[in-house]
Design goal:
With 223 residues, the protein is of the alpha/beta class. It has helices spanning 17-26, 49-55, 76-82, 97-106, 153-166, 183-189, 198-201, 208-216; strands at 4-7, 32-37, 63-68, 86-90, 110-115, 133-137, 171-175, 193-196. Strands 1-8-7-6-5-4-3-2 form an eight-stranded parallel sheet. The chain binds D-xylitol-5-phosphate (DX5) and zinc ion.
Length: 223
Amino acid sequence: MTVKVAPSILSADFSQLGEEVRRVEEGGADWIHLDLMDGHFVPNLTIGPPVVASLRPHTTLPLDAHLMVDHPERLFEPLARAGADLVTIHAEAASHLHRLLEEIRQRGMKAGVALNPATSPRVLDYLWELLDLVLVMTVNPGLGGQSFIPAMLPKIRFIADQIKERGLPVELQVDGGINDKTAPRVIKAGATVLVAGSAIFGSGAGPGLIQAFKLAGSPPEKL
Ligand code: DX5
Ligand code: ZN
């Protein structure tokens, strides 16, 4: 199976976001990953719905909003109006996850749950019918350019098995420290969507890496 690639604009040149998004779209990106941080749930502060709205005309790709914020529900309506396609909230930031996932879908967007490295995948047990995506954080959230945590591989495998056993159309996304070394490992563990920030925007590799990730997930050619 070919993986999807969702470049994270966190490591892009913020003075030229429209152009950066166009570059990765041309390079074969499947989604655009947008990291919204509030300076509370994580110390960093990034973008909000107005920037999402201003990016919307620059790409036809799905806009994948990763909310690293407290009280994520405050952003649902503004994000729907801004043209976000998918909204992922952190399990650690929501006391009423079940209700919030319903609220995302009621606004016509797809719904995802993100799990910090310390969070058990068991939190998903009673949520499956409301999920379009599970995001396994493979670093602690808040910054680009951190190192992949290998202890997350069994968690990815466990969730991939749960999705398979249930026969659900749920994407399994990984985010943090994804590069040419770690991509094949997470794909092997069952990831279906790779988020990469610094490996694509912060290095010489650039959008060419997107195709390399996809090849890493393709079956070997038959002899
Ligand atoms: C980190 C963000 C990521 C970030 C990943 O909290 O959620 O999306 O951009 O950056 P890299 O790929 O550099 O680890
Ligand atoms: Zn992210």
